Amino acid sequence: MHDLQRYSAISGKMPREMVLLRGYGCGWARCTFCDYHLDRCADGAANFALNRRALGQVTGEFRRLEAINSGSFCELDADTLTLLEKICLEKQIETLHVECHWMHRGKIPALREHYAAHGVRVRVRLGVESFDYDFRENVLHKGIAERDPAKIAAGFDECNLLFGLPGQTAESMRRDIETGLTHFDRLYLNLMTANSAPLQPDAAACAAFREELFPLYRDHPRIDILLENTDFGVG
Ligand code: SF4
Fold this sequence. Notes:
By secondary structure, the protein is of the alpha/beta class. The chain has helices at 44-55, 78-90, 108-116, 133-139, 149-153, 170-183, 203-217, and strands spanning 7-10, 16-20, 64-68, 95-99, 121-129, 158-163, 186-191, 223-226.
């Protein structure tokens, strides 16, 4: 996965720059719908060389930067984390968005405090995918051993939800969105697209999302919708 687009500037609802960095790899790597954890490398120096090119494109024009890495922020090499911080300060970034798996949630407070000391607000996104515990854990293998949405959201600011999967209906997807809006500041709705993972999109669920839910939530100020997983210009 060396030909990915790793920088973009997004001028939509929440204007921001975005970098897709590469880390040592998702420490979970068991979600049945995911193959982007393959964007990994055990060579920290090679990762840093790649990440330096992406971070070098950041201009700070929106004062907001999203830095994701097909895993969790803490799976980035130390040089990349140092450079990310340097870029945030040099480019006067006010808000930094990162992603984190549930299993690393204990590392978030230190990250927030570290950046807060430099005047940078950190927003952390969790891939929840669904609030239906049995679906999420037994079908998606997400690795969030908690049923209560309020407890899941504690310590996080934003979440991903994944739609268009076998077993999902317009009603179940709508329930997930409303639960997400109740407990998180911001939602990212991802419509499943075909990939090399075991779980693949379901045509009826995708159609239900496009026809019934997309028109309802398209203009919601706290929701971003990705009908293709490259809609943000990275990946
Ligand atoms: S969805 Fe996220 S947590 Fe799950 S395997 Fe992929 S990168 Fe890892």
